[in-house]
Amino acid sequence: MTYNQDEYIKQHNHAAQIANTLRHSRYFLVSILIICLYIFAIYQVYFTHQSFYFSIWFIFTEVFVSLCWMISTVYFKPGQYSLQIAHRWLQFQCFSVGTLIASGIFLIFYYLPSNNENFQPIQALTLSALLLIVTQTFGLTYLTQKLNYFCLAFLPSIVPYLVAQFFFFDETNHLFNLSINFGLIVILMCAMTSYRIHRRVSTLYAKNNLLVENAEQQVKWTDELCQQLQDEVNKSRDIEMQLQLGNQLLEQKVKERTFDIETMNKDLENQQENLVLAHEIAGLRPWDWNVKERRISVTNHKHEKSLRSSKDHQIQLQHVIHPDDVMHFKTEMTRHLRGLTDRYEATYRIQNSNGKWNWVHDIGRVITRDPNNKKPLRMVGIRRDIHQERTSQERLKLAASVLQQAAEGIFILNEELRYIDVNPFYEQLTGFSHEQIIGKHLFDITANYKSAQRSTHYSIIKQVLKMGEYDGELHEKFLSGKELTLWMHINAITDEQNRVTHYIGIVSDLTERKLQEQRLSYLENYDTLTDLPNRFYYNYQLHQYLVSQQDSIKQLAVIRLNIDRFRPLNEYLSNNGGDELLRQVAQRLRLTNAEALFVAHLNGDDFAIVYEMSHIRPSVQEHCERLTKAFSLPFNIFGQDHVITLSIGVAFYPEHGRQLDYLNNCAEQALSEAKNLGGNTIRYYSNENTALLEQGIFLERDLRKAIQNNELVVYYQPKINFRNKDIYGFEALVRWNHPEKGLIPPGLFIPLAEQTSLISDIGRIVLQKTAKQIRLWNNLGYNNICVSVNIVAQQIRRGQLLNDLDQAIDDNQIDGSSLELEITESSLIENSDSVRNLLDEIKKRKINISLDDFGTGYSSLSYLADFPIDILKIDRSFVSKIGENKQQAIVSAMIAMGKAMGMTVVAEGIETEQQMQYLQDLDCDIAQGYLFSKPLPQEEATIFLENNISAPTYTYLI
Ligand code: C2E
Ligand code: MG
Ligand code: MG
């Protein structure tokens, strides 16, 4: 601090010295100007002599001093200068002035006396002394602020005197010298003293300044402190006021609270009463256990309080609590008393006065504990009878699980018919999640685009709101995309005042059942292969046309169609190909019969069309021709083109009959005729026709009767051995001996019988009759007669054949080798394994197997090797064409092949000698045909035998 203070004083003194000297130097300079002017003027006035150097000195001095004055005044304004520069400037100024004065003294003292005779040395001494003394005096006055400045002016100015004293010692006035030296020393000492005084004053001034500054600082701090004090006082006052306000508020609040507490106390008292009532109603029984005093206050079922010892209470409890629940009760209580649980809670059964177990829920809490050892002192609790609640809960759970598990959609609606709950099955049905359905209106989740749908919904809602229930079937499309047929049952739920609170809906999904029904109906009425109505539906529909709409429909044509030679083509194409062909035929029929009432697929390759005749439609003939034309285009089956032709039979309503059966038979008859004509033709039923229908025979019905009435007879067509013209045997051919209509050929009823079970019956009858006949012939001695019986695919398929054969053989005691079965190629196609097994079984009975109508089917020749076939029967169609080159070649190839395979070859339908000769030449084995005999009734056949076999012994060809 002292150092700082000293430094401050030093700096202050230095600055004060410079500042004061700057200010005083201006007076000093002015003094120098005046003294120089005075001396120059005296010299000029007294000595009227011009001295060049002296004038130069004078002018230079005056100019220089004036410049110095101006610089000091203008440049060094207070507070605007650097101390360093000012210090240097003052040093320079003092030294220069001292030097100028020295040079003036030199000129006056040495030069002027030598230059001016009038100017005496004493005068020179006086003037120079004057200049020196005045200068020193002014210096002493103005430059002693800093000794340095004074010395810089003083020392150069005395140089001329000192020089003169040393160098002109003799010439100078010694007294003067001594005086002036003394004077100069005095001046110097005065200067030093003055300097010290100045410095001390300056120091004092500086110290004073410091003190003043300190004092001012102290005053400032004091002011600030006073201000802070004042602020604090103000704050204290504010706080005091706030405190007072707070106090007032607090008092107010305390008053309010007191009032509130009083009100609450009153409320509490009321509530206490309410609580007691509530306890009473809710079946709550509060208890209060003073653990310390071992007393417990309990409320009984009549809500009367009683006080008893806790020990008694426990003993009583253990007696009434269900043995299974005692442990649970004790554990929970102990855990809570030990402070392990927040509250005690136990559900257990208690035996009531009539011995029944009641569920109770006991809940309590220790409200006071010993602060030292935490032992319970007081515990309160409530026991609640939850028997009813628990039973209801269980029932509710059961109901909820029924809702969840139900395989019916169940929903609950509020009184506005908005969903409030649905079961998972309903979500599944609608395709919406629970969240998506809830809140929606009953039909908000279904599509309501169609007005019919909207009106259905509207009527349902109306009925539900009016009647409180709805029960009905509806077809709904949900917005989720699901489309269902539903049975919906909605019932209103009412409260005690009979107000509707909810609606409950049960929805059953009938979609699958409906589809099933449709499927069944489809299967019943439609042919799955061709998608056309089947025979059943055809008959039904035709019957409808004939019966119900007799008035509206005037004329009908029943058109029956059959694909020519379908069987061989089917065999050739194999099953899939055959099916594909039938599909395409059905499709073409559909397209070409847009104008027809009905197109049906009756069976196999049988189709039917019901066509209404009117002047606005093409005639039946035109229509049928159009059909034939449409069928002239080939069918592409698996990449191969096949051209097929149709046989068409037509019958007309009402001309040919007014009844379904009759009409059908007429059309069938016409079709048979078309077939017999070789196919690819249209035949119209004619009344002159001798066919069955004309005779009023309804095939199926009458055939059954015929079987029952034993109207079927067997004719036998002889087979002749080519080699020796002996009788080889017969072919058994069935005929229907109609009591009224006479003999009906098999071609008219076998095809129909094939489609029904009748064929089995016919087959059995023929077998029996044939076997019986063989027995007769055997009895007559014709032991080697072999009779062939025709078997169709149906008989093989039905699985009765072996039984029938065994029965025929056994019943008539004949040898299996006297029987032969004629089967067609088509019988071998289906299910070849089972057919092979059957044929093997037949072979085991020594019965020969003959392949009938050989060459008419597209038979794969591999059958011949695969199946145990003994005889090849060349079809009549080949034999009849003997004479034509190519056909002959086929016949000879067939015979050659049969023989090469070790088979017996039979040619049927031989009518001419030429045919017989040709076949004989080819080494054919057996001949059959009208050339030898037509099929004969049994008596005639026996006569034929008698006539043609000389002795009843026969040599087998096979
Ligand atoms: P199928 O087995 O090819 O029988 C030969 C048919 O040709 C017989 O006609 C016969 O009378 C006839 N026929 C024989 N030789 C000649 C001839 O020289 N010229 C001409 N024009 N015809 C000749 P039918 O009796 O009318 O039998 C026709 C078809 O009925 C049989 O052809 C056979 O497939 C079937 N059939 C006959 N009886 C039965 C039977 O008891 N059961 C089965 N499932 N079908 C039978
Ligand atoms: Mg035959
Ligand atoms: Mg035949």
Per DSSP E runs of 2 or more residues, the count of β-strands stands at: 28
Q: What small molecules are bound in this structure?
A: ligand C2E, magnesium ion
CATH class of the largest domain: Alpha Beta
Mean pLDDT across the residues is 86
Percent in strands? 15-25%
Q: Which term fits the overall shape?
A: elongated
Helix content: 55-70%
User: Which structural class matches the secondary elements?
Assistant: alpha+beta
Poorly predicted ranges? 951-958
Rg, Cα atoms, Å: 77 Å
Tally of distinct domains = 6
Distance between the termini: 162 Å
CATH architecture tag of the largest domain: Alpha-Beta Barrel
- Strand order, main sheet: write it out: 19-20-22-23-24-25-26-27
Notes on the protein architecture:
The structure is a single chain. The protein is α+β, with helices and mostly antiparallel strands. The chain folds into 6 domains: 2-209, no CATH class; 251-276; 283-391, PAS domain (Beta-Lactamase); 431-514, Beta-Lactamase, CATH 3.30.450; 526-685, Alpha-Beta Plaits; 697-935, Alpha-Beta Barrel (TIM Barrel). The protein is built from 29 helices and 28 strands. The protein has an 8-stranded mixed β-barrel with strand order 19-20-22-23-24-25-26-27, surrounded by 4 helices. Strands 3-2-1-6-5-4 form a 6-stranded antiparallel β-sheet, sandwiched between helices. A hairpin with a 5-residue loop joins strand 4 and strand 5. The radius of gyration is 77 Å and the shape is elongated.
